[in-house]
Sequence to fold (437 residues):
Amino acid sequence: MKPIQVGLLGIGTVGGGTFSVLLRNREEISRRAGRAIVITTVADKDTARAKAITQGEATITDDAFSVVNDPAIDIVVELIGGTGVAKQLVMKAIENGKHVVTANKALLAHHGNEIFAAAHKKGVMVAFEAAVAGGVPIIKSLREGLAANRIEWIVGIINGTSNFILSKMRETGASFAQVLEQAKALGYAEADPTFDIEGIDAAHKLTLMSAIGFGIPMQFSAAYTEGISKLTREDIRFAEELGYRIKLLGITKRTAAGIELRVHPTLIPKERLIANVEGVMNAIVVKGDAVGQTMFYGAGAGAEPTGSAVIGDLIDVARTLTADPEHRVPHLAFQPDQLSDIALLPMDEVNTAYYLRLQVLDQPGVLADITRILADLGISIGAMVQKEPTEGETSVNIIMLTHQTLEKQVNQAIAKIEALAVVTGKVTRIRLEELDS
Ligand code: HSE
Fold:
């Protein structure tokens, strides 16, 4: 059978990994796909780099549009990233009847609804395993392996850079700024690390998983996003002393009131498997009504791990090329006319537990004032410790763990507590999830 011809747009880290794995494993890949899959054309602005990687095995161009307009190309692999030219190229490829494989989470989180609608209309596939958690096959697992389940929640460590920073802060007692520099030197964090450390990259990925898990459209703009840049080593240490570890979690949950979609630093009990995911690794826990909790763990970035996900999609597309579009696995797991309009919850309506750290003057009546505020708002305290003042300090740290309550109640409590004359500085609030079954 005629080989599948692939046009690769962008041959940076992931493109290079994809190219070399496809070449190295071509025989087994073709036995799996039923026909050979060959990257025949590579588009990259840096044609010298592209030539060095492809070693004469592909035609090189600096004009990506010539690839998406080439009638010989069956599948376009988009690894350019961003929401600008990448969107134009993907839309053009779809218009030209080509299947698309992409690792571009930002593009899909922002424009996925439009892209999938265009692909559906045209009868082509847009596959995106590599967009979430690199080499971890979470999209396929959610969409196919867990298809029997009513998904209850999905919780993930889906940004390796942030997880590396949090692991190092805990292990070494270093500050956020110190470890960020280390992450940059190791090439984990970009020169502008905003997307990684402010939770935006994680929110992109969570948006995709939420859509697939619950059968809803992509709604990135409704996601609550808070990063790790304000976390202190003290909070990490205090959490540890209380039996918890702080992780940047993406959390999406189905509740009676609507769907939660949130990324923020979160305390989780130290003994949970996901609390022990360290360094740049990713992990996602999915709770389904039938299967219970399942955890998916692996490399969330990197040339060959992400290349593995891209090629898995290429094989999937190759296998289904002969199937009628209506018999393929739907892009968002649910049939396009069966998406639900269940509302996403504003953060105020989210119900979770909290770690609160207050700096207060060490004098009689302070605790009574604080606990009165919490009690009046119906917030129940689960645990509390007071730390000895450090030398020369007049205020002490009080750490409270609350039971589950509404975010808006906690917001009110924090405002009232911060207004007390005996409270010095801002209240630190970190959300807490037990993740028990
Ligand atoms: N920058 C991401 C991370 C990998 O640190 O996990 C690509 O999404």
Summary: The longest strand covers residues 244-255.
